[in-house]
Design goal:
Rossmann fold
Length: 425
Amino acid sequence: MKSNEIENLDRLKEFLETPNRDWGKIVIQALDLTALDESLAHEGLATTTCFIGCQFGPLLAKKVTEAGCLIFSPRPGLPFDPYQSAVYSWRDLLNHYVSTNPNSYRNCRDWLCYEAATAETTKKKRADISLADELLFRLHDFSQEDALQDFLKPNPADSVTWKKVVAIMGGHDLERLEKVKDASGNPTEADAPYMRVALLAWKLSQQAYLIATGGGPGAMEAGNLGAYFAHRPEAELRTAVRRLESVPKVEPIAPGSVRWNSGEWLAPAVDLLEAFERDLQKVAGQSVGIPTWFYGHEPPNVFATHIAKYFENSLREEGLLAIATHGIVFAQGNAGTVQEIFQDACQNYYGTYGPPAPMVLLDSAYWNRSGFGVVDRKHKPVWPLLQQLASERTKEGFPRAILLTDSLEETMTHITSLDPNSGQT
């Protein structure tokens, strides 16, 4: 039974003015209802009426109990809201961060949530978490999933944009570099992998694709950064990357290690936002980051305009791949990126979310046994196996969905040619 969700007081008051209103399909989420105590206490609530994270006055509290409504009560004292009805902004998560004081990251909601859920040394759930607390973590993730879907719903003023999600995946350790460096450490003429990802996201965002990433450092940050600069010239994007080079990458070593530099890594990015403010009235250029507290020593990157953050990494991974209805680009990455490649391949193989969507492996030398891209000692030749899987689903169109390339232009053409809204498929 599809419910009618009410997440702000104006919408609730509008509903209360509706004649013959049906409370049987109503879900009210994260609202302070004390000012409406008396009027709501006289409403015809149903057993299927649901209140999630709401505050009641005494009359309504008695009413919902008598009516047998489904109630998820607020829980004070937590560093997070289990019933968060909207996705986060970077300011929500890094609420006390000051770039001149990198250690201020430890005072932020983002870090406190990690501490609340995860043991620092093992990344497993803390041993002292009760069943009630565990349930609250799950409720938070459910609320984020719902908030993300709300954000992705078609915009009546621009209905196509919000359906055209392209995800960019890649490793957290991809260094912030504009140009590849030679053996002496001097920049060459070739764009570095980080710069190439940022340029690709910049181009895709200009074509009204909504960029989604894992929301963290490295290739993920490059994707959100490129989208952020969609309304600025390429020269300014390049300037931004050069400014970020002052802290080339996050050091994802256990907190407490001298190499853990999350606070320092955030500083040039936060300063960059102040130097290059974004026009908030423009839709194109927005992007989504979907990180997880499982990798708590990696803070979210600040260039994602919308952040859906999860405690449970498995939910985050599946959800991120599922929303990428217009394709996924896989930049250089490690075990996590390889996992995402074959998780996406599985969805395409079985048609889990419809016809196969584009899969682009960017940098042929990295993903294949041979190629012409940037050779890396950690290259991962997954391309032959992906080809084999695709060949088993010829009728479904899987083979034409996959591409191994070194070209940003070819990547763009591949994604747009398979765009179901383009009329070219």
